Amino acid sequence: MRTSIMSQMQRSFSIELPKLVPLQLPSRMETHLWYVIPDEVKSTSLLKQYSQLLSPPENDKVLQMRGDKLQKNALLARTLVRTTIARYQTNNGVDPRTLMFKKNMYGKPEVDWQNYKNCSDPPLHFNISHTDSLVACGVTLHVPVGIDLEDKDRKIKHDVLTLAERFYSTDEVTFLSTIPDPEVQRKEFIKLWTLKEAYVKALGKGFSAAPFNTFTIQFKAGTNGGYNLCKEETKKCNRDWKFGLLELADSHYAAVCIEDDQARAPMRVIVRKTIPFVEDELISESKFL
Amino acid sequence: MASLSTTSLSFKAPSTRISQVLRKGSSFQSVTFGRFTSSTSKSLRLQISCAAKAETVQKVSDIVKEQLALTADTPLTAESKFTALGADSLDTVEIVMALEEKFNISVEESDAQNITTIQEAADLIEDLVQKKPAA
Predict the structure, then answer these.
(1) ipTM above threshold 0.90
(2) How many C-beta neighbours within 10 Å does residue A244 have?
(3) Of A67, A157, A163, Cβ closest to residue B67
(4) CB A258 within 8 A of CB A20
(5) Could you state, in order of their start, the residue ranges of all structural domains in chain A?
(6) CATH number of the domain at A5-11+23-288, please?
């Protein structure tokens, strides 16, 4: 621990941060889904505190975003990850600035736990997604997770079926083409997009490992918002992958995907809204679409 | 791995450039066309191309601006990365399709995944337009 703190000395740790309220770890079949509404974070001094949490490379990436709004959202995304993960650490709280991140061999970001070898905390997994108006982070224990957000009112410029025929599986195209109302069809297309994206992100091996048209995600009637993942070629379904689709902040669809080969119970998603260092609000528990 | 010393090549056209593209696992959060590239395809691609005409770059910029609903004061250059402009995976798919329609070309998914900036899109477009069989 000492060496890692020494190596962080070049960043100014003399600045006092407000205390972070600790959190109870998610249970195995639970995903904790945290979100921030950028428009609700107005204080420039708070945003300045946030930028002090980020590593220099993270700050550089934020500054590369073109425009104030995009920069703010990028800052909030990294802040959300750092503060949320730090809060789950049970040993008297961890300074979010000391968290280190790395990428798996395919480029998926994950926490680098090497500095915490002596801690008894089991590894957490996380995944972020953000749009113009919402930033979210999903956190799980032991199991890989992927999340994706899309604005419910997002306009699709191309014909939805043309897009589906090119990118989705045949069963998904069939499903979409049976929907008579174009507005409903657009919404179902977007929901499917978030589910498929969440799966690819949970898989963490890059898009080329699972092109969208090689798998189908199908709604399971009679379950509380459950979905099946099936391979296009073989039509075989893999029950290790669990999905949840929810509505966030009345404005977005959010898909959560986890891989768990040990549990047959449906997944749970606890949704909380937050402004880091300021407040948390419990929004819902497993309220699926 | 092919190694090519630039001194052994001579090109007459002044605007020709050689770009060496080494595909490695790129940032997971930076969404290239179709998402991040897989690091397992560690192929060294040598691209010899003429830098795209300013006109093509302009047309690509216009399509990108429209798809991403960028305000007039958003700083935008040929080197602008789509992700830095706020494009997500669905945006990049729609941008590629709009480019296909505008230029009457067909972009392979593998090519689409390698485009990360306006300049790269313009270069690919010119390459594909050139390769089209004469009408």
Answers:
(1) no
(2) 27
(3) A157
(4) no
(5) 5-11+23-288
(6) 3.90.470.20
